[in-house]
Amino acid sequence: MQNESTIAAAEIPVSESAKRTEMIHEDTTAKLFLLSSVTYFFIVGIIALLIAAKFVMPSFLGTIPQLTYGRLRPLHVNGMLFGWLLACDMALMYYVVPRLCGVKLWSEKLGIATGVLWNVIILSAVVSFLMGWNQGWEYAELPLILDVGVVLAWVMFGANVFMTIANRKYQAMYVTLWYAMGTILWTAFVYLTGNFATLFTTGVNQANLNWMYVHNAVGLIFTPVGLAIAYYFIPKASNTPLYSHKLSMIGFWSLAFVYVWTGAHHMLHGPISQWLQTITIVFSVMLLIPVWAAVYNFFATMKGQWHQLRDNVSLKFLMSGVVFYLLTCFQGPMHSLHVVNAIVSKTDWIPGHAHMAVLGAFSFFAIAGTYYALPRLFNTELYSDALANWSFWLLLIGGLGFFVTLWLGGFWQGWQWNNPAIPFIDTVVALQPVWAVRLGSGFLMFGGIVAFGYNVLATVLGAKGSGVEANPAEVAA
Amino acid sequence: MLQKADYNAAFFVAAALGLFFIGGLLTTVVPPLIDSSWSKPFENSDPANGPVGKLRQLNEQELQGRAIYVREGCWYCHTQQVRTILADTKRYGWRGVDAPISTPDEFVYDSPHMFGTKRTGPDLARVGGKYNDQWHRAHFRNPADLVPGSIMPPFPWIANNEAEFKAMVAYLQTLGRAKDWRPDNDYEK
């Protein structure tokens, strides 16, 4: 029984490709989400450069209220999280779930309505943030009316995915489907906590709910949907069955139990009960279990297949994403230890860590999924493999430059803060070179985004073969 | 046991939510029930028990000031918490007096809370009473004039709007004042 289910579930991603031709998917919803998310990736990338530039040139765009750092930062954070990453993740779920279930998406009409609503929310958010209409909670800055819109869109998305799964043709649910369902269920409660329960509380109680949401926005939204993508596309892109079904179960169920306990680690050393700090440290360290279970599974799947990375851009993004996931989730538990927290907390180390999670791990997964799914959605071939390689190397090198400089700079900053004889302003001036390198790395990353976005656009417009970059082998085929 | 979840979606949903809610409820709903300092405003009149003082609610002008603080995103770069780290109490002290560590009972009227996560600028938990109106006006006009090397942007639309400026400064002067921690060193004295 156990062996049977292990083999059956593990082989779905590979064997299912044979049936793909029999089943014609409409995919309008997936296309809508995918194209709008890539557009926001590009636009919000410009905002990212503007705010990075402000650290180096504080007076840059400084006298226009709508373009100050305090208004552009929430636009950058929310734009990347919800406009780009979550929308792209949803696009890939609209693509993957029907294929794993062997049926069509339950309702394309509902899906299109969800996509339209999502775009309305994102565009309204842009206006809100520039106007300073900000609720004052990190990740939950959106005005209340837009929060209601997000909940509505999420219910519409969830209904579509769950109904598709309910109508599935294959009885066994592959691990990607668990993560998709887990994401939808947990996100609903995590989002309600961070955006609505906070309204009825104050002070530390409110902060505790806010950080439960902030932490789990990453841990129970972007992590499970990111893993859903990795579990589907790593076997698919490498044409290799997943190493272990059992290990993926350990990873999934330990994640379901452990993640939610850790929100209060954002207030370590802060005005919050000591016993809660101790609990949050214990569970933060336990996060290593789901992470290592998933990462080991991915590495073991790739055993003997690493040569495929040479000319498979999706796999390049996926496996570097896995390495970043491993690193970022090693840092997280370590940050929760008192001795480490006393140095890195509140410093520039933290944006270095957060960007490795959201860009290095989960955006890399989403980009890999896009490169894999896009040609299949539009029944064509990718416009340019060379350009896709450029997008990989620019994002990888720019990303590493960003992460590593901020870690070094942030660690140094933390040491300086812990010596009260050093005036605060000296610790600001000391970081100028770090911020300059961060801006330079930002330009490299943005180059990667442009290469990715142009490749997507050109593929959709069917420009294949019209450019000089066309690969002769593919033209011949 | 959980293998049933591979085939049975209803069982899956129950298991995924059940595991989630154990930690979810124990870390969000339970702590404020156990720890009364989360909801009981700070009040102490006995010097033997640490700093004396009483937390009060913000008045209308101070609330307006806080709304500007939220609108301009000040909280993205300034935290409001003196942590249980020795250097924090020294760095954010004033004229030789160490800043008291922030406690939950100092924040029970705060909504939205402004604890913050990033210190691009200094912590503001104890900034109340340190600088006068004249200093704040010059600082909002152009921070780098007063603090060379500062990367805080100028806020002329606050400095030049009398109502907004007064509200903003009134709010800042309340920060950290519930604890009367350095009675003879305020700018007013």
Descriptive report:
The complex is a heterodimer of chains A (477) and B (189). Chain A has 477 residues and is mainly α. Chain A has a single domain (2-302, 310-462), classed as Cytochrome c oxidase-like, subunit I domain (Cytochrome C Oxidase, Chain A, Up-down Bundle), CATH 1.20.210.10. Chain A is 75% helix and 0% strand. Chain A is built from 17 helices and no strands. Chain A has helices at residues 2-20, 28-56, 69-101, 108-131, 144-166, 175-195, 203-238, 245-258, 274-286, 288-302, 313-335, 338-344, 349-377, 385-417, 424-430, 432-460, 472-476. In chain A, helix 13 (349-377) packs parallel to helix 16 (432-460). The longest helix of chain A has 36 residues, at 203-238. Residues 1-11, 17-21 and 463-477 of chain A have low confidence and may be disordered. The mean pLDDT of chain B is 93. Chain B is built from eight helices and two strands. Chain B has two domains: 2-34; 43-174, Cytochrome Bc1 Complex, Chain D, domain 2, CATH 1.10.760.10. Chain B has helices at 9-28, 30-34, 60-71, 86-91, 133-141, 143-146, 156-159, 162-174, and strands at residues 43-44, 53-54. The termini of chain B are far apart. Chain B is an all-alpha fold and 189 residues long. In chain B, strands 1-2 form a two-stranded antiparallel sheet. In chain B, helix 3 (60-71) packs across helix 8 (162-174). At the A-B interface, helix 1, helix 3, helix 5, helix 6 and helix 7 of A face helix 1, helix 2 and helix 4 of B.
| Largest protein-protein interface | A-B, 87 and 75 residues
Give the percentage of residues in beta strands of chain B.
under 5%
Radius of gyration of chain A: 22 Å
CATH superfamily (homologous) name of the largest domain in chain B? Cytochrome c-like domain
Fraction of residues in helix of chain A: over 70%
Instruction: Count the domains of chain B.
Output: 2
Short characterization:
Chain A is mostly helical and 477 residues long.
